[in-house]
Amino acid sequence: MIWYSNPYSRQKNFGRALNEFCDRVPNDAWICIQDGDIMYLTDYWGSQIEDITLNNPEYSLIGCLTNRLRSPHQLYKGEFCDKDSVFYHQVIAERLYQDHYSQVQPTEKGIAGMFMLFPKKVWNRVQFREQSAAFDTFFCRDLAKIGGKIGIAQGLYVFHRYRLGKENPKTNNKHLYI
Predict the structure, then answer these.
(1) Fewer CB atoms inside 10 A, N or C side of the chain?
(2) What distance in Å separates the CA atoms of residue 63 and residue 117, rounded to the nearest whole number?
């Protein structure tokens, strides 16, 4: 089973919110942390995510591809995309779904917190740091220190609103601190 959550903290203590959620999840389950501004674009995303976990049990943490993020290794073709048409992105998502369904490619660069998929047993060893807007970066680093394998699902593409319409969307991070 996969437990999904969009943790939020008005005090911006995302690490604590994530840890409180993860603590409630059964030990034999997977956890999927996702931002509130992502959108799945294929009809069977739930089955696909389950198949990703079943076909890639050697991974400690799995991210996905998206359209807008500061991390080029998680962007489709490595490019930040300003196109706001969901239909444009749906075509990409469906193509990747068909061509790379449950394939995961390893990365040493870590993954962004907008989508993090991991087994509860990983969280039992490495928890999210509290009082840090960079909870995802620290989680990846701490996981790497204990030999955890991190990868990016090549067939799962989500639309990420990520600062859409904001000035300097690649660097605007006010939402993390206000």
Answers:
(1) C
(2) 6
Give the amino acid at 163. Answer: R
DSSP conformation class of 157? E
Phi/psi region, residue 80 (left: phi>0; alpha: psi -120 to 50; beta: rest), is: beta
Give me the phi and psi of 150, to 5 degrees please: -115, 140
pLDDT tens string for the chain (178 positions)?
999 999 877 887 889 999 999 999 999 999 999 998 899 999 999 999 999 999 999 999 999 999 988 889 999 999 988 888 999 999 999 999 999 999 999 999 999 999 999 999 999 999 999 988 789 999 999 999 999 999 999 999 999 987 665 566 555 555 554 4
Parse the chain into domains and list their residue ranges: 2-176
| Rounded CA separation 104/143 (Å) | 17
Residue 67, Cβ neighbours under 10 Å: how many? 26
**Is 2-176 assigned to CATH 3.40.140.10?**
no
- Cα–Cα distance between 100 and 119 in angstroms, integer? 22
What is the number of other CB atoms lying within 10 angstroms of the CB of residue 101? 18
